[in-house]
Amino acid sequence: MKKAAIFLLVVIVMIVGYLFYSAKPGIRNAHLEGENIICFGDSLTYGTGASDGMDYPSQLAGLTGHAVINAGIPGDTTADALARLDKDVLSQYPRIVLITLGGNDLKNRVPADTAFGNLKVIIEEIQERGALVVIGGIDIPLFGRGFGKGYEQVCAQTGALLIPNIYEDIFGRQGLMTDPIHPNDRGYQIMAERFYETIRPYL
Questions:
Q1: What is d(CA 87, CA 71) in angstroms, rounded to the nearest whole number?
Q2: Cβ distance 26 to 196 under 8 Å?
Q3: What are phi and psi of 110, to 5 degrees?
Q4: Measured between alpha carbons, how far is 46 from 60 in angstroms, rounded to an integer?
Q5: What's the CA dihedral at 124, 162, 45, 94 to 10 degrees?
Q6: DSSP string spanning 1-52?
Q7: Could you give the CA distance from residue 105 to residue 102 in angstroms, rounded to a whole number?
Q8: Of 62, 97, 153, 197, whose CB is crowded by the most CB atoms within 10 A?
Q9: Which CATH code, of 3.40.50.1110, 3.40.50.10490, 3.40.50.150, 3.90.1150.200, is assigned to 27-202?
Q10: What's the CA gap between 56 and 193, in Å, rounded?
Q11: Among residues 161, 164, 165, 181, which one has the least CA distance to residue 173?
């Protein structure tokens, strides 16, 4: 009887463990297809406030030794980015896509459900092309409206890699910002280094 109870307990533990781990998707597309590294997003990707050649995609190119496409447009919301996804990303043979989106949704008071619904579609359409997706999240104390949690949830659902707060120790620091929203050259260097450390195992 005792052996049967122990056996039953082991079986239950194995089943619970399987359900726990299978419920969490792993990194999707860790074995890469495609050709290009693409940075897709808003002014943080474009490099507003940076000197020539000091935007984070340009600095990332120097760190990786690979060409990097800058597909950032200042002011883009997730809806704007979704509208140009095919032209600026899917048609460019993506291999790794790094995304900074959501800041303008936050600023324009777009509902979080709408913003992260758009972001989820963007991520999944890129992943369908075989590319690895990395999200640079934003988590601004007091003004974040729960967006930080939204990035965590959408990446858990899709298997995208997440940098929880790309602004961490940059936002609000005079020596790293050119204005209240955008980093300076050194701030963008820190962003590039964070993205590089995240994608380095997959290069």
A1: 10
A2: no
A3: -70, 135
A4: 13
A5: -40
A6: -HHHHHHHHHHHHHHHHHHHHHTS---TT-S--SSEEEEEESHHHHTTTPPT
A7: 5
A8: 97
A9: 3.40.50.1110
A10: 9
A11: 181
Q: Among all chains, which residue has been given the structure tokens 């419920």?
A: 23
CB 143 within 8 A of CB 42: no
Tokens linked to 105: 């949704």
Q: What is the pLDDT of residues 38-67, one digit of tens each?
A: 999 999 999 999 999 999 999 999 999 999
- CA angle 156-164-158, nearest 5°? 20
Domain residue limits, the chain: 27-202
Cα gap 160→120, rounded to integer Å: 10
Rounded Cα distance between 146 and 109, Å, is: 12
Task: Answer yes or no: are the C-beta atoms of 49 and 79 closer than 8 Å.
Answer: no
This prediction's pTM:
0.85
Tens digit of each residue's pLDDT (9 = 90 or more) over 69-119:
999 999 999 999 999 999 999 999 999 999 999 999 998 999 999 999 999
The dihedral formed by the CA atoms of 100, 73, 126 and 164, expressed in degrees to the nearest 10: 0
Alpha helices, H only, 147-200: 147-158, 185-199
Tokens of 133: 């997706």
> 3-state class of 95 per DSSP?
strand
Cα–Cα distance for residue pair 17/2, rounded to 1 Å: 23
Which candidate, 101, 142, 129, places its Cα nearest to that of 29?
A: 129
